[in-house]
Amino acid sequence: MRRASTWIAFLSICTLAMSPNLALAADGVPAISDAKPAGTQDLPEDGKRLFYETSESTADLVESYATKLKEGGWTLTRKGASGGKTGGGGEIIANRDGEHLVLKAGGPDGKTFVTLCTWPQRPMNDYCS
């Protein structure tokens, strides 16, 4: 059983790597520029969790993604990033027409790990890490 689940996980990651368009969480959720998909996971309440890696700094990623969200009609309820040359962390929480989005990002300088979670409505628990 363990071997089968490992194989399925491997195929899922390969599919994402070959088809970046599959990494979109939902219609209207902006893509993360220059990010490499690293996996996906279903969440309770019809949510999706997507994992990405990018060389963009956390602060730059949070700023650029917040701009894309606003341009797409999303309302930001929380946005922040901190850190320096050794890395940092950041977060965005946004809503649009009942949809709910949480982005968490962080990592060492030169490599930012991103977790993007979306739900069709605000969940009871929007934990996204």
Task: Describe the structure concisely.
This protein has helices spanning 2-18, 58-71, and strands spanning 36-43, 47-54, 75-84, 87-96, 99-107, 112-119. It has 129 residues and is α+β, with helices and mostly antiparallel strands. A 6-stranded antiparallel beta sheet has the order 1-2-6-5-4-3.
Question: What does this protein structure show overall?
Answer:
- The structure is a single chain.
- The protein has helices spanning 2-18, 58-71; strands at residues 36-43, 47-54, 75-84, 87-96, 99-107, 112-119.
- It has a single domain, classed as Protein Transport Mog1p, Chain A (3-Layer(aba) Sandwich), CATH 3.40.1000.
- A hairpin with a 2-residue loop joins strand 3 (75-84) and strand 4 (87-96).
- Mean pLDDT is 83; it is low at 1-23.
- The protein has a 6-stranded antiparallel beta sheet.
- With 129 residues, the protein is an alpha+beta fold.
